[in-house]
Write a structure and sequence with these properties.
Layout (H helix, E strand, L loop, with lengths): L6 H14 L22 E4 L9 H5 L5 E10 L9 E12 L8 H5 L5 E4 L13 E2 L1 H7 L17 H21 L12 H10 L9 H12 L1
Antiparallel strand pairs: 1-4, 2-3, 3-5
């Protein structure tokens, strides 16, 4: 069947009329901030206390936009005869966001949870060199990282929390055992300390003298 002449124009005008009667959904940015999903990839924040300078993030970065400098520091032994240890101290941690492709590989490979996604995206600069964020700037982005979602009530307890809870319970039990007094002996029984005290109070017999020899003069005198 051949199309009716002007039907396409009528359909287009109908769509235009329906749209004109609806409320606009345009957000007037920057006056109105967009509602971003919680897993938005905006900028990367650094939690410096968790970083062990393992260099995994820098090695796995496909754009080589992560720069890390560190030095070794000797820690003296904490116990007599112990060995000294050495640790890596972070000197510089920078990310060049002009090269970053926001793949998130650095965050995924970090074994100590030192890198996090932040939904913040308003960090445009007029100079491209200012897009290299040093560790102080990366630490500031940590304040914008959203809290992790709540666990499913029916989910299993994480292994880390279970191990920490068991350790805390054992420590509390040990401390309670140290503070609690020793249990009293049952009625009709005599403790070892009481036996020693009673033996010390009784007169000592000459060596070789038996109980029968001690009691014999008593029997003769009674007769």
């Amino acid at each position: 069947m051949a199309p009716i002449p002007g039907s396409g124009l009528a359909k287009g005008l109908a769509v235009t009329l329906r749209t004109m009667t609806k409320k606009p959904v345009t957000d007037q940015y920057p006056d109105t901030q967009p509602a971003l999903p919680p897993r938005t990839r905006g900028v990367i924040g650094l939690f410096e206390e968790n970083c062990t300078v393992c260099m995994l993030c820098a090695r796995e970065c496909p754009d080589w936009c992560i720069y890390i400098d560190s030095h070794k520091e000797t820690i003296p032994a904490t116990t007599p005869g112990g060995r000294e240890r050495s640790r890596n101290v972070l000197d510089r941690f920078a990310i060049d966001f002009s090269l970053c492709m926001y793949c998130g590989i650095c965050i995924e490979v970090c074994p100590f949870d030192a890198l996090f996604w932040s939904p913040e995206f308003e960090y445009a600069e007029t100079d491209i060199r200012d897009l290299t964020h040093e560790r102080d700037k990366l630490r500031e982005w940590m304040w914008t990282v959203p809290a992790p979602p709540a666990l499913d009530p029916g989910a299993e307890e994480p292994k880390e929390l279970a191990a920490a809870r068991k350790t805390a319970e054992k420590l509390a039990a040990a401390q309670a055992a140290e503070v609690a007094p020793p249990p009293a002996p049952p009625a009709g029984t005599e403790s070892h300390a009481d036996e020693q005290a009673r033996a010390a109070e009784s007169p000592a017999r000459p060596a070789g003298e038996s109980q029968q020899q001690t009691d014999r003069p008593r029997q003769e005198g009674g007769e």
